[in-house]
Amino acid sequence: MDVAGAKLVWLDPYTGETREHLMTEGTSVTIGRSASNDIQIAEGHVSRMHAVVTCRDDKFLIDDLDSANGTFVNGNRVDGSNTLALGDEINLFVTMLRLIRANADPGDEAAALVSVLVGDKASLRITKGPQQGQVYALLKDEIYIGRSTPNSTWEIALQDPTVSRPHAFLVKEKHHWKLFDLGSVNGTSVNTRPVTGGKAQILRDGDRIMFGATATLFRVGYPGAGPDKVRSRGAR
Questions:
Q1: Is the dihedral of CA 222, 228, 233, 234 positive or negative?
Q2: For residue 43, which phi and psi values (nearest 5 degrees)?
Q3: What's the pTM value of the predicted model, to 2 decimals?
Q4: What backbone phi and psi angles, to 5 degrees, belong to 98?
Q5: CA angle 146, 219, 71 (to 5 degrees)
Q6: Quick one: pLDDT at residue 227?
Q7: CB of 146 within 8 A of CB of 158?
């Protein structure tokens, strides 16, 4: 295989735009949530340093870097070094990358780059705070939000000392998401209006939610995903 003639393509979870990274012989490309990676995937379920792809001796290899949620190639979990071939899909929980030829148009590939796990799930984008730029897919119908600690079990853990543990609760009922404050110290607000008294706030697309000093944007869909952009795992 001519490794100089290949690239990784993916959908940016923050903007929904197609991105690409050219692969060259003898180099390693790190993938993760941290901006220090060669490929940054700012999705909350991706680890800071999640995986590494290496071009070596005319072969592609991928290694998982002890990520919290694992790395999968064509639906199979990576254990040690795994080989990659053109057309292979790399799944980082809800984010999908694909290895294609360097001269291929990624436009057609973009439709398949969001995992079926996302579907029509809603999402929270952090717009201000220590984790600014991260996007969380709301994969469950009940989501707890709280301050990140070594023993935290929240679905969304925020690295903000103004956030309580736990802080708020999201629940999906039929076609609507409802938000509750859990007696947090610094409060929860939607479009500057406080959520108080144990009363539910029904969320709408584009609502601005504050958890303490962390600002987020609620969207009814995941960036780049939609009925025409999601396909079943393993389809070709």
A1: negative
A2: -110, 135
A3: 0.74
A4: -135, 140
A5: 65
A6: 39
A7: yes
